[in-house]
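Re: that backbone. Tokens:
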């Protein structure tokens, strides 16, 4: 994906996992790589790609609006399309940043595994009072309709 491209959250990823991003990608292919690391790097790659798209559209708009360009070359349709493209890329970037930030905030500290999931079956011990229990039906009796 976008292993070699920088993202705005590389510092946080490095801080949480304790290694530079390129080393984290190498560790993620190992047998004992944590699922959280794989997910974080996947989100980070999507973020880096999306940020590159934002920069491309920004640079294209800046070039189109350069004061030295001929005004006859301006196209409102092209600028509208670029604005839509930029809006979509910014929305995607914000979504990836939020998802990656949430993942990094909710991860257990490095070196500590998450607590195992409790798989016990909980039992209800309260009994219903006799008035709360439904009365048994007689064979052939019609059920009363509720309003």
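Recovered sequence:
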């Amino acid at each position: 994906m976008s292993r070699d491209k920088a993202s705005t959250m590389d510092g946080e990823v490095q801080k949480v996992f304790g290694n530079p991003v390129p080393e984290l990608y190498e560790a993620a292919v190992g047998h004992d790589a944590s699922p959280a690391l794989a997910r974080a790097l996947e989100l980070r790659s999507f973020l880096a790609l999306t940020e590159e798209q934002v920069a491309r559209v920004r640079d294209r708009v800046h070039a189109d609006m350069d004061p030295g360009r001929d005004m006859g070359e301006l196209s409102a349709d092209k600028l509208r399309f670029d604005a839509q493209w930029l809006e979509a890329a910014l929305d995607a970037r914000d979504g990836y940043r939020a998802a990656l930030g949430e993942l990094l905030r909710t991860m257990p500290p490095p070196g500590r595994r998450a607590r195992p999931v409790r798989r016990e079956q909980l039992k209800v011990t309260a009994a219903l009072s006799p008035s709360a229990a439904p009365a048994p039906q007689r064979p052939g009796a019609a059920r009363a309709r509720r309003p």
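The radius of gyration is 28 Å. Helices lie at 10-17, 21-28, 35-64, 76-106.
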